[in-house]
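re: ur question from earlier - yeah i can do the single chain one, its not a big deal. heres the input i used so u can compare w yours
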Amino acid sequence: MDNSTAPTTLVELARLVRLAAQELDRAIAACVGDTSVGRWHVLAAVADGEGRSMSQLGEAALLTGASLTRLIDAMIAENLVHRRVDDTDRRRVLVFPTPRGVRAYQTMTTALADSGLDLLAVGGPRLPKALTSLIGHIHEAESAHA
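and the output i got, formated as tokens:
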């Protein structure tokens, strides 16, 4: 490939990566019976019962600001999670799962296992490694041109 085709190829790569992410989100949402894959990401992040800050949940769900707050508020209203002030840093609020949230996450996990979608991550380690490598290459390219 010469430099004249690089922009077109980059456009297609970006389109395919976005399409793959959208299709995976759609398949997961259909499988877990939920229209918000963000809810699944939040429950996965807090399922261990340790509690996570809003910034940690933002990284897990790839949501920020008002969108994340609306999601957490909705999940609180449905008794899936609850907020509590951090015992070690009173300025920080942590989000924890409720027993109902833990059961919902377990149900989602079972549905994903039954569907076979989870095999995309564990059955073929090449795909997650390739995506991690792609992200690394993107960061390297950004650093080189910064």
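The first strand starts at residue 52 and ends at 53. not sure if urs matches, ping me
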